[in-house]
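For the sake of transparency, this paper describes our internal protein records without simplification. The remainder of this section carries one protein's record, kept here as part of the documentation:
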Amino acid sequence: MVDFELHILGCGSASPTTRHLATSQIIRWGDKLYMIDCGEGTQVQMRHERVGFGRLNHIFLSHLHGDHCFGLPGLISTFGMLGRTADLFIHGPEGIEDYLQPILTRFCKGLSFRVQFHVVDAYRHGLVMEDRSLKVYAIPLKHRIPTCGYLFEEKEKEAHLIREMVDFWQIPVKLRQGIKSGNDYVTPSGQVIPHAQLTRPPSPPRRYAYCSDTAFYPDGVVPLIRGVNLLYHEATFAQADIARAIETGHSTALQAAEIARLAEVGKLVIGHFSSRYKTEDMLKQEANRVFAATILADEGLVIPV
């Protein structure tokens, strides 16, 4: 099975600390890399984590708060210095081009590649990007400005041929791909061998959902992420600070766990930690009381989807 992994580069919130970096993540599917958010210091963290710059072609921004996008200008500039030629696709809510284009014009003249902007409707669930490996969907969130999360879903795989049946019926090589795609096999004598007898169902597509930043929003989020293998949900505050969470459009650890429980996800990762806490242990404890399969995000953490 192809590797499908989440790599945390930063999981802090807006105020910088010496313990956590601003938000950024890498999704790896096989040899492809996709970035979600690009807070300040992301490219340095990529060097620390030995994440290859050359395999990154798509960057998905949740919203235009600085702790999620201030790292982009430096990263794009470095791409230019490295002689990149492949187009770079940046997906994000309306305003992303207005933010970046003046910086590119002043500081990144003569780039050897194109930066292509794709505006995402932060208020609508829909397909954002599709390639041969994955589909990426927007998840509308509830924050102080237009914000969306992202759902990464593997493309559905073909059925697996049953080797013993292929050999028994002596199925020609040229017909096997069609059978994997759903065709029946007709023997030289005219007997029809159903597709279901020749194949095993493929593994279900794996899915990863990213929800940061957002207030507690079960009615909007849960139906879109139900049953995902892995969920990252912001947990900026402890439940004792719920008033501050409501005021700033964020969630508590307990609320993040409630989303995971309602959506029946496989595993929950909480992050986007407020700088007010010297440790995140109490956040994990709060979440674990509601959803046992909760872990804390941390810089450098790699989690299989």
Q: What stands out?
A: Residues 218 and 238 are 18 Å apart (CA to CA).
